[in-house]
């Protein structure tokens, strides 16, 4: 049984998207890793599956698999891509879909961009989650290689945001995995390094949980803005300058984080039976 897929991305953070609403598909971790492999598979940062849902007001359930086979409850860039797909399908300018982190609402913004209301940030240590009661404004137990005391934010998934003087100088491939797997994060964490350029602009680079360095991270951009505003480094709205381009993030007065940015559909294709059969039944 082969399956059609769409190859999409948000600022270079790329996805294989499967519509499994009519034919359920629950790949094993091994299948996800095989599909995500950039040499022997299709290649992607996350593998996204649209599932049928009975959730009121939702057009689909969006399941998110990282390239390492782990599952995540939130993915900002993929949320814009799925929102766009559902709007194209319905002909409407709005779409809502369920995720493990809750019901998300997407709508068309200017210049072909899409806005997703990513909901409220979760700021309590137990919601990140962290391993022990901690002030999430500066997590002192997390330090390595001259970097210490990140801000912890949950956007449906865990983030640790370090503020630095020069984001380009961070040895991301070296320190990223150390922080991703730090014992303070019982569910691991996405890791951001942010350089505040002005009260309305932040340069940010990211090491993603389960995917490594990516060109952009939507939930990471949301976490970065929330962290900067909490520290008084910016206002509640700023442009986040990522390797792949810019996202505009706003943390509204009624505690919603709005993420606006582009969506791209690169190509469609078919997963071969060999690729889908990899690791059938494996963990
Ligand atoms: N690596 C993330 C999921 C993808 C997030 C990112 N691609 C985004 O756009 O938010 C995690 O394990 O929580």
UniProtKB/TrEMBL annotation:
Group of enzyme by EC: isomerase
Similarity remark: Belongs to the diaminopimelate epimerase family.
Subunit: Homodimer.
Keyword Cell membrane carried by entry: no
GO CC, alphabetical: cytosol
A biological process from GO: lysine biosynthetic process via diaminopimelate
The reaction(s) this protein catalyses: (2S,6S)-2,6-diaminopimelate = meso-2,6-diaminopimelate
Intracellular or extracellular location(s): Cytoplasm
Record gene name: dapF
GO molecular function: diaminopimelate epimerase activity
Main subcellular location of this protein, as a coarse class: cytoplasm
Annotated InterPro entries: DAP_epimerase_AS, DAP_epimerase_DapF
PANTHER family cross-referenced by the UniProt entry: DIAMINOPIMELATE EPIMERASE, DIAMINOPIMELATE EPIMERASE, CHLOROPLASTIC
Protein name as catalogued: Diaminopimelate epimerase
Domain of life the protein comes from: Bacteria
Pfam families per the UniProt record, alphabetical: DAP_epimerase
Function in brief: Catalyzes the stereoinversion of LL-2,6-diaminopimelate (L,L-DAP) to meso-diaminopimelate (meso-DAP), a precursor of L-lysine and an essential component of the bacterial peptidoglycan.
Keywords: Amino-acid biosynthesis, Cytoplasm, Isomerase, Lysine biosynthesis
Positions of transmembrane segments: none
């Amino acid at each position: 049984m082969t399956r059609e897929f769409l190859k999409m991305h948000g600022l270079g953070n790329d996805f294989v998207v499967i519509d499994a609403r009519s034919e359920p598909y629950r790949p094993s971790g091994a299948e996800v890793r095989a599909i995500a492999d950039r040499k022997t598979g299709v290649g992607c940062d996350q593998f996204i599956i649209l599932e049928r849902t009975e959730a009121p007001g939702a057009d689909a359930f969006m399941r998110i698999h990282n390239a390492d086979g782990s599952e995540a409850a939130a993915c900002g860039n993929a949320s814009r891509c799925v929102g766009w797909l559902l709007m194209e399908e319905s002909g409407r300018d709005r779409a809502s879909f369920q995720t493990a982190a809750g019901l998300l609402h997407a709508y068309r913004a200017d210049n072909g961009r899409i806005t997703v209301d990513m909901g409220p940030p979760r700021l309590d240590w137990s919601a990140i989650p962290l391993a022990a009661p901690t002030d999430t404004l500066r997590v002192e137990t997390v330090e390595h290689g001259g970097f210490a005391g990140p801000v912890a934010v949950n956007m449906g998934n865990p983030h640790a945001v370090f503020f630095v003087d020069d984001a380009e100088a961070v040895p991301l491939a070296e320190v990223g995995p150390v922080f991703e797997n730090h014992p303070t994060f019982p569910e691991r964490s996405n890791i951001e390094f942010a350089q505040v350029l002005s009260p309305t602009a932040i340069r940010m680079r990211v090491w993603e949980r389960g995917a490594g360095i990516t060109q952009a991270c939507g939930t990471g951009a949301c976490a970065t803005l929330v962290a900067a505003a909490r520290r008084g480094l910016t206002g509640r709205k700023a442009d986040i300058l990522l390797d792949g381009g810019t996202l505009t993030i706003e943390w509204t007065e009624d505690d919603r984080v709005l993420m606006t940015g582009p969506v791209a559909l690169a190509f469609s294709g078919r997963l071969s039976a060999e690729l889908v059969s990899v690791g059938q039944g494996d963990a």
